[in-house]
Write a structure and sequence with these properties.
Layout: H1 2-25, H2 30-54, E1 66-75, E2 86-94, E3 100-110, H3 113-127, E4 131-137, E5 144-145, E6 151-152, E7 155-156, E8 159-160, E9 171-177
Antiparallel strand pairs: 1-2, 1-4, 2-3, 4-9, 5-6, 7-8
Helix pairs in contact: 1-2
Length: 193
């Protein structure tokens, strides 16, 4: 992936050199030249942020409604460093028949205590060899799903579930998927069976 980033850098340097050459040699008004420089500079900034996806960094886009879960990493917040933390999911979309489609993608969600607990439960199931399918309702909700898919209310007898009452709650649910049963393989030709 580094050659791609290097090639993009060289391409943008060539565009900047071409722009400089055209600005020196052209008879356009100064405002046109300044505007061209501003536009190209803006494109550099946009391309820099766009290369994050090329480098494989997790996206903060909304998770698919249904997905096959392959891995989770919980990054705890650290107040001393000012790090907010996050929960990283490695998933593939699932079609209406429950079959994973497309390439796996990494997503990041903001850290919350409830989501961290749900993620921890899912990690334990994955470590035990379970295939998990997840569903995500990105809207704020008073119900939070726990690892067993049981819905809990927004607060309990011990107080609110979230440390910050203004935090938005998203609903995640993970359930085990039955492994597909494959038909028996016929013995190879000439083999006794």
């Amino acid at each position: 992936m580094i050659p791609v980033v290097l090639a993009l850098t060289l391409a943008y340097a060539a565009v900047a050199a071409l722009l400089l050459n055209l600005n020196v040699a052209s008879a356009h008004p100064r405002w046109v030249k300044t505007g061209a420089i501003a536009v190209v500079t803006g494109l550099y900034a946009g391309a820099w942020h766009g290369t994050h996806a090329l480098l494989g960094w997790p996206t903060d886009e909304t998770l698919p409604e249904r997905f096959r879960l392959y891995a989770i990493v919980v990054d705890e917040p650290d107040r001393r460093r000012g790090h907010a933390g996050g929960i990283y999911f490695w998933v593939r979309n699932v079609d209406e028949d429950g079959i994973p489609v497309g390439e796996p993608r990494s997503y990041v969600e903001p850290w919350s205590r409830e989501l961290a607990q749900v993620a921890q439960n899912a990690q334990e199931e994955l470590a035990g060899g379970a295939l998990l399918e997840g569903s995500f309702d990105g809207s704020a909700s008073d119900a939070v799903e726990d690892g067993d898919g049981q819905s809990r209310g927004g607060s309990d007898a011990d107080g609110p579930l979230l440390t910050e009452p203004h935090e938005e709650r998203s609903r995640f649910e993970f359930r085990e998927v039955k492994r597909p049963e494959l038909p028996p393989k016929p013995p190879p030709d000439g083999a006794q069976g």
